[in-house]
């Protein structure tokens, strides 16, 4: 197939969207498909042998004027399907351009979409999604959010996880051993969080864990909440932003993983923790409902009950055998969600939305 990927984020800007797009391109290259990336600059001229074309940012007042460059690029490449990887300025323009040209399209849901759909200025986003061949949500909770916003033609596509990078074997690495010595000099149980330090992550809940006996709390990530959290949880270790092998080694240093926020539409860090053989504690809400099997790969807590996170984590801290058993099952259960399998599923969706019978139903 010929796939045009329109994204608001690409190399050298490393975000979750960039990671997802690169994983999709890696698999498309390995399986013989053709692709082009349309993104804002700066960007490399190619990736995995696929051309990368930069497109100017949103400008002007007329919708037609804002999509002309995209339409030219799409016309030259002649894709079978347009994959819109993010629904910001360039992404919504990509959907509009694909509709103008009669090209089937797939829109990928992002975590900031619920707030944007509810905003009074969201009419252009609603219009763009109304012409998408399918809008893909990463979880059943996200699908419900889209349905409640009257988005048509909703499908599910859960992200993959790099099970080679995020692997329990990292525990034997020097970085991980040194980090464990630093975080747990007296053999403490290391409870870790990875993600943006933002209000919607509800990281204030982690204060419940700060004085748990025998616990070392480690927080990985950056964001505007860091200063406030350092004051709220002074005994926690703030490790800053990490990525790649350094991040994988950091997961491997943890004994269990905590995801405190109830508003996640998916939970990529939950998958990364599970791939690293960590039991996960997460709220019984949002994306983790589809990922964590309570009592098998981790535990889900009631986010409306004060103190229940402390109680849940405390139970796992006191039971190393349970943590080991859950961590092993977590790795086993997540291995099928590797990126090649996820992208092969996505290619099946491309074929579905570009099939003549599907196009007739959409029309």
From TrEMBL:
Keywords: Glycosyltransferase, Transferase. Residues 16-164 form the Glycosyltransferase subfamily 4-like N-terminal domain. Residues 181-331 form the Glycosyl transferase family domain. GO terms for molecular function: glycosyltransferase activity. InterPro entries: Glyco_trans_1, Glyco_trans_4-like_N, Glycosyltransferase_grp1. It comes from the Bacteria. Coiled coil: none annotated. It holds the Pfam family Glycos_transf_1. This is D-inositol 3-phosphate glycosyltransferase. It comes from Flexivirga alba.
